Amino acid sequence: MYKNIAAVFAMTLSVTAFAPHAIAKDTKDAKGGTAVLIPASDLKWADVAGFPGVKMAVVEGDPAKGPAHFLIKFAGGFAAPLHHHSAGHHGVVISGTLVLTVDGKDNKLPAGSYFSFKGKKQHVTKCEAGADCLIALDAGGKWDVIPEETKAAEKKK
């Protein structure tokens, strides 16, 4: 079942990955620099299959294949059980209060807070009830969500 969730999530990412390029204003100056400018009203949000209450807007790259920059929106009250990601990533909370449980400790991160995960660090992700959480994420490689087996589930096997 966990492999199915990860596969559906990856498929959704690949479908949404191409939308930003159609709407982004990619400017280039005489010195060769570029800028990508996407007003909030032009972001293309897509539901993340298998994760009710989660939406994603990819702004650069293809998270299903490699490094990418994207926004994730969690509905207030959302919770993802213990999991990890294959790629190191870092993010900034734009709105809402994100709660990341790391090593059994809840860490409340209000808007403006920064976080980073490397080395497949296990964590629980929650968005406090009352307001949606908007997160800007930079993933250093293919984005995935790998659920962790709990000790109770392992005992049932």
What this model shows, in words?
Strand 8 and strand 9 (105-109) form a beta hairpin. The protein has helices at 2-16, 19-23, 151-156, and strands at 25-28, 34-37, 46-47, 54-61, 68-74, 79-84, 89-95, 98-102, 105-109, 114-117, 123-127, 133-139, 146-147. The protein has one domain (2-28, 35-156): Jelly Rolls (Sandwich). The longest helix has 15 residues, at 2-16. Helices cover 17% and strands 42% of the residues. Strands 3-4-5-12-7-10 form a 6-stranded antiparallel beta sheet. It is an alpha+beta fold and 157 residues long. It has 3 helices and 13 strands.
**What is the β-strand count?**
13
Order of helices and strands: HHEEEEEEEEEEEEEH
The poorly predicted ranges are 1-23
The largest beta-sheet arranges its strands as 3-4-5-12-7-10
* Level-2 CATH architecture: Sandwich
Shape descriptor reads globular
If you average the pLDDT, what whole number results?
83
Number of domains: 1
In CATH, what is the class? Mainly Beta
By CATH, the topology is: Jelly Rolls
In CATH terms, the superfamily is: Jelly Rolls
Counted by DSSP, the helix tally is 3
User: Portion of residues in helices?
Assistant: 10-25%
